[in-house]
Amino acid sequence: MSVIIPVYNAVDHLPECLQSLAGQSIGFERIEIVAVDDGSTDGSGDLLDTWAERHPGRVRVVHQENSGAPGGPRNRAIGMAQGEFLFFADPDDYLGTEALERLVAAAERNDSDVVLGKIKGVGRKAPVTPFRENVDGGDIFTSKGVWSLTAHKLFRRSLVEEHGLRFAEGIRLAEEQVFVVPAYLHARSISVVSDYDCYYLVRRDDFPHLTREVPDPASFYANVRDVLSIVAAHVPPGARRNKLLYRWLTLEILGRFDGRFADLPEEARALHVKLAGDLLRAYMPQTLVDQLPPLSRLRCLLISQGLVEELTVLTTLVPRPEPKPQQRPATPAARPAPSPSRRLARYAPARVLRALKRRLRRGR
Question: Are 31 and 1 spatial neighbours (Cβ–Cβ below 8 Å)?
């Protein structure tokens, strides 16, 4: 099997990742590592070359100029890979010792084209919903795979090649979805290994994580549109499609309009609202929106109508987490936190607040 690793300036963490692969219980002789050095300047490329010299035939390395995102290096490695199965790892993460053995066994036992292995967060969040129980030979619905769209999974290479699956290039957030979602939809079956921590997703304070970046609105929403087009082409309208669309509605669309939205420049806020509104109108049926809680329905209404000011006010209604209070105040009389009304007043004139209150009373 082939393990694909896009590498950029990860020299401090890459050894742990590589060692976790060399120590796999399936046997290192059954693994090829295909690593693409994406223009590293910190010695990562030299480290990979050392591993390739030490393990001829087991570690294959290619060097290229920096592409700015992992999609391009992954695509190049797919073209080089020779294994029956592909697994995608990041250089700052690592695998459990039995991970590949268990994933391959599940694929062979169930004729599965995709196998999800339990992801464990180390200092960061990891998906929970797909890993509540093992699944043998399910589909995108029974596996709940739509709630785990990162690339850290096992894919049968014949599926990838038959359907020409590739990652989005030059995009620094959600670039994996145009690969993973059609893989789910085309797979003969999907299995889940939930009773073993297969992949350790690690937070590294000294390593840039794309999930913590603010995405460029144009490329982000264009990528989401591509994914939603894939879903719409494969799943007929109705309750089953809505079950899938709920994920993008709540995470990719409404998830952009939390407390951080008000801090964006005015031009960026307007662009987010316009592009998100286009997606809402094109792909999210009213029957799905009607199932949301009142504040989420209101967000959808404001987005679809392009009401940037009112939406900015609404995102301030839910206060951001406050630091835990000390047992003994640092001063005898601490200044109280600003009330919700004062927080709102910082962002909108009275006319906007009145309009927002009318919409809140209508519950839409």
Answer: yes
